[in-house]
Amino acid sequence: MAAKGLKKVLLMGKSGSGKTSMRSIIFANFLAKPTMRLGPTLHVDHDNVKFLGNLVLNLWDCGGQDAFMEAFFNSERAQTFSGVHVLIYVFDVDSHEHKKDIDQFVSCLQSIDDLSPDARVFCLIHKMDLIKNEDDRTKLLEERREELSKIAAPRKLTVFRTSIWDETLYKAWSEIVYQLVPNVSLLKEKLTKLCNLCGADEVVLFEKATFLVISHAISREHKDVHRFEKISNIIKHYKLTCGKTQARFKSMEVKNSTFTALVDVFTTNTYIMVIMSNPRIQCAAVQQNVQFARSYFEQIIKSKRR
Questions:
Q1: Which of 36, 114, 100 minimizes the C-alpha distance to 69?
Q2: What's the Cα-to-Cα distance from 93 to each of 99, 132, 160, 224, rounded to whole Å?
Q3: Local confidence band at 306 (pLDDT 50, 70, 90 cut-offs)
Q4: Which of 203, 215, 216, 251 is most buried, taking the most CB atoms under 10 A from its CB?
Q5: What is the DSSP string of 156-214?
Q6: Which of 114, 108, 124, 199 is nearest to 158 (CA)?
Q7: How far is it, in rounded angstroms, from Cα 145 to Cα 151?
Q8: What is the dihedral of CA 168, 298, 7, 49, to 10 degrees?
Q9: Is the dihedral of CA 253, 259, 265, 271 positive or negative?
Q10: CA torsion sign, 8 to 9 to 12 to 16?
């Protein structure tokens, strides 16, 4: 039986599909370009990743070579697919073996259904940057989503398009991890109250190490639905740059004629971003409200209730 707070996450897909690269970017602070030097995963790369303190992701990065996949579905089936909380299956858009990829995905689903029926399943249509036209990317995503949903029925699954070169990777992983975070409803409720108290347009909570979005509250709609993931990408790159100069990133304030954005350390394991468009709101007042809320949110995040 898995220890409380330990969530087993299977990362699977054919060899060369980009599994290790995306894991290294999200959890090991790699930039996109250096991941091209990473070698293939042999058998399974196990990693326990602390996330929000009490939550630990027991990440299984499974090698996609035929010999390893054969073992996962046969001699190592019970060991691999038992106690799984999340299956992430990565499809390479550049693959020339689509039928084989689908067959292996079906074998994964059958094993999950037998041994971890309550696991959530996510499919990542990866390397979408190789398709240059946005309309073609959208069309392919919808085709794959329809195909995979029919294969998985009646099980529900979620399909994302991803690339290591843009914010789509953070979008997908933020939503995946969100499913594992305790007290997400309560976090959302209290962030909404904080947003209203500050008179802010938006308040966003990021996990400290990965800068994945944990929760957010909105009082004013914005047309860019990928803005949080873009910010995750930008600030994480900035943090890595600070690290190279032996400097630690703590907070930042960005201000122009239309808005003010404050990013600051919040709890032990999170950063908070507050966006304000009302010029009458003083940043110092917002900072004080954030400071008063810290200890309360710390208690919510540390609680293990789901």
A1: 100
A2: 13, 12, 12, 25
A3: very low
A4: 203
A5: -EEEEE--TTSTHHHHHHHHHHHTT-TTHHHHHHHHHHHHHHHT-SEEEEEETTT--EE
A6: 124
A7: 10
A8: 70
A9: negative
A10: negative
DSSP notation for 45-109: EEEEEEETTTEEEEEEEE--SHHHHHHHHTTTHHHHHTTEEEEEEEEETT-S-HHHHHHHHHHHH
pLDDT, tens digit, 9 for 90 and up, residues 152-202: 999 999 999 999 998 899 999 999 988 888 788 899 999 999 999 999 999
| Cβ contact 287:264 at 8 Å | yes
Burial of 9 (0-12, 13-18, 19+ CB in 10 A): buried
What's the pTM value of the predicted model, to 2 decimals?
0.87
pLDDT grade for 233, boundaries at 50, 70 and 90: confident
Average pLDDT of the chain, as a whole number? 90
SS (H, E, C) 104-116: HHHHHHHHHHHHC
Would you call 72 exposed, middle or buried from its count of C-beta atoms within 10 A (0-12, 13-18, 19+)? Answer: buried
Which residue bears the tokens 């858009």?
A: 93
